[in-house]
Amino acid sequence: xxIISGKYKGRRxxxxxxxxxxxxxxxxxxxxxNVLNNHFNFDGLKVLDLFAxxxxxxxxxxxxxxxxxxxxxxxxxxxxxxxxxxxxxxxxIAATKSDVFKFLEKCNTSFDIVFADPPYGLDQATFEKVxxxxxxxxxxxxxxxxxxxxxxxxxxxxxxxxSFQKSYGGSVFSFFEFESEEEIxxxxxxxxxxxx
Length: 196
Known about the structure:
With 196 residues, the chain is an alpha/beta fold. It has 6 helices and 7 strands. The protein has one domain: Vaccinia Virus protein VP39 (Rossmann fold, 3-Layer(aba) Sandwich). The protein has a 7-stranded mixed β-sheet, with helices on both faces. Helix 2 links the parallel strand 1 and strand 2. Helix 4 (100-106) runs parallel beside helix 5 (124-136). The longest helix has 14 residues, at 76-89.
């Protein structure tokens, strides 16, 4: 597992064996961050990493200057490793051991990016619940983006606020954004209709 870009570009991080994880591959991670790079300046972005596992995605955001980063996972070993790595690299990561759904139901903070990588074996309804809770609880900032990683067998494009998706190998990233609710200014509309 290596950091793709930023302050610690090329640095390898080796989590202990035995953690119940399926880390995002370096190829998929690089593709994901290429997409995000077209939408955001990472410096100072407030990030929530759900089902954080080894912290792979959190470290990538940290290396690129995002802060603060909240990493949530239900496994004690994963959280312990994230805390150790964050301390070693001085990443602004707060690792929290919690059931993700309980965390979301109590969360009173909003973020610029919410990334979720639930275990692929969870059922369709569980994946949907993650997305719906984030929007119902206003956990995503109005100009923010939610990304959920899933297998090609899980379909999320019917959900509210779905924007687009990208596939890399056996993994799919579905992106969600608030629909634009800006009122159309009549003067702007008239100007568009005029010939120059």
